[in-house]
Amino acid sequence: MSTHSGPKALTEYILHQSKLKANKRFIILLVQGILAGIYISIGAIASLKLSASILIPGLGNFFGSLVFPLGIIAVLLMQAELFTSDCMVMIAVYAGRTKLKKIFRILFLIVVSNLLGAILVAFLTHASGIFDQAVINLVIDKALHKVHMPAGQLFASAILCNIIVCTGVCLAYSCKEEIAKITALWLAIAVFALSGTEHVVANMYYLFAGLFLGAEITAKDILYNLVVSGIGNFIGGGIIVSGINYILAFRDIEKVKK
Question: Among the CATH numbers 1.20.1080.10, 3.40.50.40, 2.40.50.320, 3.20.20.70, which is that of 7-253?
């Protein structure tokens, strides 16, 4: 009797998804990646506006964290391609179903397309004037904090971030009903948002929005944050979460392969 949850079911699902991603045309991956960058940025906009509007310390962050998950829920339900959760396709490499070089090509295209989507929304945020001074100050503070974070702290924070995010995605994958998927993912991403850890795609929006809104940061500062957080996210999702689940499912997957 097959199950819908657990490491074996999850690994089989991700292997199936990896095969689908590998067979997608370049333009489809590009557009779906841009959409994911847009969706995550929309969640960030709501979170920023709500956080800045509540003056009680801690309460603004709490309510902001409750609306941030909208972005990643849209990614899951609309089947967009988000770098952080897509890092789990590394399971296909562990299972010997594809080459590491091919997975890196796919992930590189996705992270670049996520960046395009995030920059677009950051520019539109500035051009549309939807942020009042309180929100602008919050965005600038966030951007400055992120680019001045020590490399070791940034790296560790990014690893932890994608452990949390990919755990939430794993829980969502294990649910049959869409309402259950949404609930599981909402809770996990709210935990990520509350943790304040470093998510490379969310950072793309925060940093470029900060740049457009007047933060004193440079292209080098942005590159520093995105490279370190991107590598940390990859290790958290692609090595730790994927690796542990594959180890737990290894025997059953190998039996199927034989």
Answer: 1.20.1080.10
